[in-house]
């Protein structure tokens, strides 16, 4: 996600700053069982009253993630808060559970697109309402989009950078008019900032930290929310789709992975999700009493350069460093091969991906460094920055392996430096972190989201602290975004990935995998590379 907005991108990465606040839902009243009648009474008099139906046991999901500061689609910009919205709300388009395939959400049909690609017209499902009774219609869609643009919260760029205007055609028809034609607009519509909200809870003029009651239109409604402690969800009887397999879900928050693992082993939770330690995952894989679920993730890690500042303003230096990075050593030594070495900024499994960067090659690194004027007597000295908590407890080890890898050239000396996340992000504008580590989760599932934020000149690249200004790269990115066919876009993205290895604004390191560990009685877990975990498909026996 775009870091210029100071958002979280990663598992177990969100710092909380809001005051804990709870709103409670109703609870069932416990019934006393009838006492036995004397034996001499008649049979009809000895029968006990019928037992009330047994209440369904809730599904309990453990996580070390946190909610962001504001439970508001106009401001929330982290994956866990988006995960909650994905389960209590819906967009006009959504993703088929466990896949990257778009399907209809609140839209009744696929949009019609104008010949120039600037207008998308959606027909909406009729007869829907939020849990607060507010009817869903075209006016609500326009209100919600206008609100995101007006408030300019952290994720607003996903709307305001692309949408010029929203028009209500009739009660159940809405038209999006775009600033420029883009081939991936349907993927944007599936993101949380495009989700409709109820005006009763979300006024036009302010961001809401936590509504007293969150209006829901998705599979679940929120019955209770205590920050950093617990969220209780209950199946939404008015949901337009198939009712959830499990009617009640509880999300429990843990301060660290160790406590979450203990809770799993003590059967206090049914699922451990985001994030167990790599060593815990490796250990739990071998325990027969648990299911370990692995899926390819869309999360990537990479090394960034301040491309306008010496000595890394020289593309030969950046490319030399790309040759000197031992990706396999990171995967093996730090993550027990629970991540995969990555050789493109476009992740594996996404259309247009190619292995553009070459593997670890010290000799090629030394050759390029020599061309740039560096040798063993005149080494390249650079700082390598990392942040100690934002990316979890393994980050120090990642930095150490990279330092060792680079210094094996005999021509590079690395000075490791660290800063906490707030200072780290603040340093983006200061040009002082010449090499620094970052991670990326997609805002929308498209190659553009892994490329433009880092390499398109101006606000995008500058906001990431990279400061690339390359006319050829800009032209390729813009052509790829405007192209309407997947075939044409693939051609451009393959060109971009190849050219990326020459310019090297960033160097990809590895791609994460997604891991959930569940109790044996849990099935139906579907997590896609989109990072969307749909609770409504899970079955607890």
Short description:
The chain is an alpha+beta fold. Helix content is 26%, strand content 21%. The protein is built from 16 helices and 19 strands.
Radius of gyration: 26 Å
Poorly predicted residue ranges: 2-48
Indicate the proportion of strand residues. Answer: 15-25%
Gap between N and C termini, in Å? 36 Å
Overall number of strands: 19
Feature tags:
globular; alpha+beta; 4-stranded antiparallel β-sheet; 541 residues; 16 helices
Describe the structure.
The protein is α+β, with helices and mostly antiparallel strands. Helix content is 26%, strand content 21%. The protein contains 16 helices and 19 strands. The model is unreliable at 2-48 (pLDDT under 50).
Helices and strands in order, then pairings?
Layout: H1 43-46, E1 59-63, H2 79-88, E2 93-95, E3 102-104, E4 112-113, E5 119-123, H3 138-151, H4 157-160, E6 163-170, E7 173-178, H5 185-189, E8 220-226, E9 230-235, E10 248-253, H6 257-265, E11 271-273, H7 278-285, E12 290-305, H8 315-323, H9 327-333, E13 339-341, H10 362-371, E14 380-386, H11 395-407, E15 412-418, H12 421-426, E16 435-440, H13 452-455, H14 459-463, H15 471-482, H16 486-503, E17 506-519, E18 522-523, E19 539-540
Parallel strand pairs: 1-10, 1-11, 14-15, 14-16
Antiparallel strand pairs: 2-3, 4-5, 5-7, 6-7, 8-9, 9-10, 11-17, 12-16, 12-17, 13-17, 18-19
Helix pairs in contact: 8-10, 9-11, 15-16
């Amino acid at each position: 996600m775009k870091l210029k907005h100071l958002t979280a991108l990663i598992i177990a990465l969100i710092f909380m700053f809001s005051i804990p606040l709870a709103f409670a839902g109703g609870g069932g009243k416990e019934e006393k069982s009838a006492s036995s009648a004397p034996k001499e009474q008649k049979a009809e008099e000895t029968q006990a009253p019928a037992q009330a139906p047994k209440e369904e046991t809730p599904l309990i999901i453990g996580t070390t993630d946190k909610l962001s500061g504001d439970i508001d689609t106009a401001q929330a910009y982290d994956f866990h808060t988006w995960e909650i919205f994905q389960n209590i709300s819906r967009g006009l388009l959504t993703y088929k559970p466990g896949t990257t395939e778009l399907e209809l959400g609140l839209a009744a049909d696929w949009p019609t697109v104008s010949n120039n690609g600037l207008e998308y017209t959606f027909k909406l499902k009729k007869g829907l309402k939020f849990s607060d009774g507010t009817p869903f219609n075209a006016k609500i869609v326009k209100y919600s989009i206008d609100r995101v643009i007006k408030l300019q919260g952290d994720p607003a760029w996903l709307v305001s950078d692309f949408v010029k205007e929203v028009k209500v055609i009739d009660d159940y028809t809405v038209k999006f008019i775009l600033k420029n034609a883009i081939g991936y607009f349907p993927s944007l519509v599936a993101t949380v900032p495009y989700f409709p909200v109820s005006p009763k809870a979300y006024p036009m003029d302010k961001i809401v930290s936590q509504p007293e009651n969150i209006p829901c239109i998705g599979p679940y409604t929120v019955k209770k929310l205590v920050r950093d402690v617990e969220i209780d969800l209950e199946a939404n009887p008015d949901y337009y789709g198939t009712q959830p397999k499990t009617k009640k879900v509880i999300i429990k928050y843990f301060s660290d992975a160790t406590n979450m693992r203990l809770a799993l082993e003590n059967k206090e939770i049914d699922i451990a999700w985001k994030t167990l330690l790599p060593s815990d995952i490796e250990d739990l894989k071998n325990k027969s009493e648990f299911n370990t679920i692995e899926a390819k993730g869309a999360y990537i890690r990479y090394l960034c350069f301040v491309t306008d500042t010496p000595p890394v303003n020289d593309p030969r230096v950046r490319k030399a460093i790309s040759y000197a990075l031992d990706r396999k050593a990171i995967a093996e030594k730090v993550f027990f091969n629970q991540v995969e070495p990555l050789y493109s900024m476009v992740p594996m499994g996404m259309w247009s991906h190619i292995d553009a960067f070459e593997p670890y090659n010290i000799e090629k690194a030394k050759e390029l460094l020599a061309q740039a004027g560096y040798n063993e007597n005149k080494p390249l000295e650079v700082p390598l920055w990392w942040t100690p908590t934002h990316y979890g407890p393994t980050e120090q080890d990642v930095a150490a392996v990279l330092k060792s890898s680079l210094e094996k050239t005999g021509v590079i000396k690395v000075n490791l430096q660290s800063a906490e996340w707030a200072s780290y992000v603040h340093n983006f504008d200061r040009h002082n972190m010449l090499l620094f580590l970052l991670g990326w989760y997609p805002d929308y599932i498209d190659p553009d989201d892994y490329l433009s934020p880092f390499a398109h000149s101006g606000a995008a690249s500058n906001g990431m602290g990279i400061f690339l200004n390359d006319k050829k790269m800009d032209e390729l990115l813009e052509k790829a975004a405007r192209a309407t066919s997947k075939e044409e876009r693939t051609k451009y993205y393959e060109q971009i990935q190849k050219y990326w290895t020459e310019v090297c604004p960033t160097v990809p390191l590895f791609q994460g995998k997604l891991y959930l560990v569940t109790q044996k009685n849990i099935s139906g877990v579907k997590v896609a590379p989109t990072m969307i975990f749909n609770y409504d498909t899970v079955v607890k026996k």
